[in-house]
Amino acid sequence: MVGASEWTEVRRKKNTTSREIPKDETSFFVTNIPNGATKSEFRKLFSHVGRLTDIYFGDKRGYNGKNFGFIRYIGVDQPKEMEKRLQGVQCRGKILEINIAKHGRKPLNDNRVTTAKLQVPKSKNFDCGASGFVG
Questions:
Q1: Best exposed site among 56, 65, 118, 123 by fewest CB in 10 Å?
Q2: Left if phi > 0, otherwise alpha if psi is -120 to 50, otherwise beta: which for 111?
Q3: Whole-model pTM?
Q4: For residue 61, which of 71, 69, 50 has the smallest C-alpha distance?
Q5: Are 71 and 54 in contact (CB under 8 A)?
Q6: Longest dimension (CA), the chain
Q7: Are 77 and 60 within 8 A, CB to CB?
Q8: What is the three-class DSSP state of 50?
Q9: C-alpha separations of 29 from 62, 71, 99 in Å
Q10: CB atoms within 10 A of CB 39
Q11: What digits encode the pLDDT tens for the residues 111-133?
């Protein structure tokens, strides 16, 4: 059986990608997105309006039952004017509803190192006994 002295505490770094949010980024909330719409379709629809930096589709539907997402641009000097320019855009025959997002996105803080509660045995040999369980 593996003794307590044969276990080692491990530290690991969170395995997520970090993202820096540009200071001059403007987010627009998009709703009424048709089922099956893709980010490449959105890129074609919206990249001619400005410097499109990100497209995000929500995993669930909004409170009104419609699919939603966000498009983000950098270097928008007049967000209200940009919002007006985006009105009337259609995707798969549906007119998209686009507004300036009420809240910006939160930056990820991925440089944290956490101590795992898990311990890893130093030995690969386990005594599982007749029941097949370690113990």
A1: 65
A2: alpha
A3: 0.63
A4: 69
A5: yes
A6: 73
A7: no
A8: coil
A9: 11, 7, 5
A10: 13
A11: 544 444 445 555 555 555 555 54
